[in-house]
């Protein structure tokens, strides 16, 4: 009996291999679960694995700029009037369109002038040559003034018959185009920019260069 009691006491003084194995399994599950939770949160915040910080404002010297959405599409249809609309398509069948929705606020200056042409906004890939400027589309809807010359970009934009209903208009906020003035404390909520890029391009950065600020995402 004495020998049996000593054996029991000895086992009670240390953790059995079975218990240690269970603890290790629980710890592994916790680690894996934490990794999956981090991955899901990152995917949601950064647009399904994109390195661009969607929904996160960045501050320049004067402006605060935020990328709201990024979509890859084959075409863009823009409201013109009740009988026709603008159709924006790639100039090359090997390319596609990227639509970028941005919100901009003038945080400090009495007035900021945004010249939304050429290199005002760029999307970039991993190579130094992968730089793509905004297409000249048009501003229509939202807080942006409509332009009659938005079909001047004949390579990408043409007028086609048929109006677009409010329900079918995917860009009611309008497009970033022309010259836009923002007084202090004012902003543009959700203006769109359009880019033509190769279909296989992985967009890694966006450069904002309008209004005297240069801001890089990410």
Brief description of this entry?
By secondary structure, the chain is α+β, with helices and mostly antiparallel strands. Helices cover 18% and strands 35% of the residues.
Mean pLDDT: 78
Q: In percent, how helical is the residue content? A: 10-25%
**What distance lies between the first and last C-alpha atoms, to the nearest angstrom?**
72 Å
The biggest beta sheet reads: 4 strands, antiparallel
Uncertain regions spanning at least 5 consecutive residues? 1-15, 28-49, 140-146
Class per helix and strand makeup: alpha+beta
Number of DSSP helical runs: 2
Radius of gyration in whole Å, from Cα?
A: 27 Å
SS strand fraction: 35-45%
The largest sheet has its strands arranged as 1-2-5-11
- The total count of strands amounts to 13
Order of helices and strands: HHEEEEEEEEEEEEE
Shape: globular
What do these coordinates show?
There is one protein chain. The chain has 218 residues and is an alpha+beta fold. 18% of the residues lie in helices and 35% in strands. It has helices at 2-12, 17-45; strands at residues 58-59, 63-73, 76-79, 84-88, 95-106, 111-116, 121-124, 131-133, 157-161, 178-183, 187-198, 205-208, 215-217. The chain has a 4-stranded antiparallel sheet with strand order 1-2-5-11, with no helix packed on it. It has a 4-stranded antiparallel sheet with strand order 8-7-12-13, with no helix packed on it. It has a 3-stranded antiparallel sheet with strand order 3-4-9, with no helix packed on it. The longest helix is centred in the N-terminal third of the chain and has 29 residues, at 17-45.
């Amino acid at each position: 009996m004495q020998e049996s009691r000593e054996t029991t006491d000895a086992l009670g003084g240390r953790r059995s291999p079975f218990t240690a194995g269970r603890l290790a399994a629980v710890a592994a599950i916790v680690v894996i679960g934490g990794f999956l939770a981090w991955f899901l949160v990152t995917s949601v915040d950064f647009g399904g694995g994109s390195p661009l910080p969607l929904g996160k404002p960045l501050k320049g010297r004067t402006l605060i700029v935020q990328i709201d959405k990024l979509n890859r599409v084959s075409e863009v249809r823009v409201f013109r009037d009740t009988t026709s609309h603008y159709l924006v398509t790639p100039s090359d069948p090997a390319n596609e369109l990227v639509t970028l929705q941005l919100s901009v606020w003038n945080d400090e200056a009495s007035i900021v002038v945004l010249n939304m042409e050429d290199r005002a906004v760029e999307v970039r890939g991993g190579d130094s040559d992968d730089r793509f400027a905004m297409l000249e589309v048009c501003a229509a809807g939202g807080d942006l003034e409509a332009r009659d010359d938005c079909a001047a970009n004949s390579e990408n934009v043409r007028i086609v018959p048929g109006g677009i209903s409010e329900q079918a208009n995917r860009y009611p906020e309008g497009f970033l185009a022309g010259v836009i003035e923002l007084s202090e404390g004012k902003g543009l909520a959700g203006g769109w920019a359009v880019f033509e890029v190769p279909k296989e391009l992985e967009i890694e950065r966006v450069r904002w260069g309008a209004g005297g600020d240069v801001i890089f995402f990410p």
